[in-house]
Amino acid sequence: MLIYIVEDDDNIRELEAFAMKNSGYDTECFAGSKEFCQAMAKAVPDLILLDIMLPGDDGLTILKKLRDDPVTSKIPVIIISAKTTELDRVKGLDLGADDYLCKPFGVMELVSRVRARLRGSSKDNEYCFAEILLSDDARKVFVSGKQTELTYKEFELLKTLIRSPGKAFTRDFLIDTIWGQGSTGRTLDVHIRTLRGKLGECGKYVQTVRNVGYKLDKDE
What we know:
The protein is α/β, with parallel strands linked by helices. It has 8 helices and 12 strands.
C-alpha cells in the first residue's frame, strides 16, 4: 500500500516515513502542497498523512479539495499537527479528516492509527488509477471527478485492469474471464476501443501489449 506524507518539517517527515516503511508500507514524501498536488495527478495513494501548516495551500485547504473530488473523496486522511486545541481538532474532523493526531506523537500510536484507517477503507472496494476511480460496490466510474457511464462488460474489463495496474493480461484471459469461452478477439478489441473513448484523456492508459494483450499503465 502507498502512503503520501505531507510535512514541511524534515525531521518529522523522516520519522513518519521511517515508521511507515518499517511497517511494510510504500511512502512518498512532500514538503509542501505544490509537490503533493503534482504527485496526486499521477497516482492516488491508499492513505495520506497531512500536516496543517504548510507552504502554499495549508493542510485544511488540501483536505477540502480532496473531499470535494469524487476521485479522492474516500482516501483516508490523518491530520498530524502541532495545533492541539479542541477547536483545531474539531475543525479538522468536520472538514473530513478521518483522524487527528497531535504533535508530539508516539510512533507506535501513529502506526496503529494508520492500520485502523486502512482496515476501514478496504471495505469500500474502490480502485483508483490516475484520474480514474472505480467503485465496485456502487458500480460507478468517475474520470476527473465526473461520472462515466459504462456497459456491464466495459465495467468488468476496466475493473480487471485497474485491480492490477501495470500487469499485462493476455487476450485469452480477458476473453475467458469476462465473456466466457466461445467469444472472439474482435469482441475484446471493440470493447477496448469503446472503453478508451469513454475514459477520454485517461483512455491512453489502456495500453496494448504487443503479442500479449492489454494493461492499465502510465508508461508509454
